[in-house]
Amino acid sequence: MGQLVKLAREDGYAVVTLDHPPVNALNAPLLTELEAVVAELEGDESVRAVIIHGAGEKAFAAGADITEFPRLSPDQAESLSRRGQAIFDRLSALPKPVIAAVHGYALGGGCELAMACDIRIAAESARLGQPEINLGILPGYGGTQRLPRLVGPSRALLMCLTGDPVSAAEALRIGLVDLVVPDAELLPRARELAAKLAGKAPVAARLIKRAVYGGLATTLAEGTALEARLFAEVFATADAREGVQAFLEKRAPRWVGR
Ligand SMILES: C/C=C/C(=O)SCCNC(=O)CCNC(=O)[C@H](O)C(C)(C)COP(=O)(O)OP(=O)(O)OC[C@H]1O[C@@H](n2cnc3c(N)ncnc32)[C@H](O)[C@@H]1OP(=O)(O)O
Fold this sequence. Notes:
Number of helices: 10
Shape: globular
CATH superfamily of the largest domain: 2-enoyl-CoA Hydratase, Chain A, domain 1
Mean pLDDT: 97
Low-confidence stretches: none
Radius of gyration: 19 Å
Order of helices and strands: EEHEEHEEHEEHHEHEHHHH
Bound molecules: ligand A1D88
CATH topology of the largest domain: 2-enoyl-CoA Hydratase, Chain A, domain 1
Number of domains: 2
CATH architecture of the largest domain: Alpha-Beta Complex
Largest sheet: 6 strands, mixed
């Protein structure tokens, strides 16, 4: 168990907790622990959904650890950016749904971490943004790429060029988050969703993620061709046979995950 990133396994899903008081700043040791947790979850088939949230009252994560910046050379800054991007890409590529449960501040790298998750649930009082321009820098953990894909280029530019955070309600309106719940309900609702997703067909879930993200990276024609290949792949699985048979026999399916 790490000191800065904690992993707890529940019934079919895992809860990853960022625990670096007071604002869960994403310093180098925390990123190392996060990478280790992601690696552990990659191979754990007993975990069929993941929740990521921040400890404490103040923040999901308030970004990279700014205290690390003064000593960074440009080359070291590029390495920091590429390292964070690689860890977030690996998180996004987990073969299972990943939910960001966002409370308080999700700023800079914290917002980028939430965007590297598949689904974002925000507490009503949460605030999300990319304030890097206020430091004279720009987002470096994928924010300039994932934010436009979620909210469109002009809203992404508005957020990155003003550095102004948005409320949870505004984040919902523009598509940055998918669900807004009362503050006290954030983790219970995230757990409820994680348990629901963990009960779905795991192979289909993995292939749906591959189809969606693979399609976003290419043309519509290549994306539909990818979908058809994955549709063929899923039909070769025991889960597809079980799912269809369960429907025809009017009973609940028993997923085997292959
Ligand atoms: C590649 C990725 C790049 C990035 O992510 S760049 C960083 C982007 N993030 C930011 O720019 C956010 C910076 N932080 C803030 O704007 C504010 O903070 C908050 C809005 C998050 C909270 O404001 P308030 O409630 O007034 O608290 P407080 O006194 O500012 O912060 C409490 C303590 O937390 C430290 N802290 C806050 N954010 C960071 C951070 N990102 N890195 C390192 N430390 C941080 C502060 O300095 C302070 O510390 P002390 O209590 O010792 O004075």
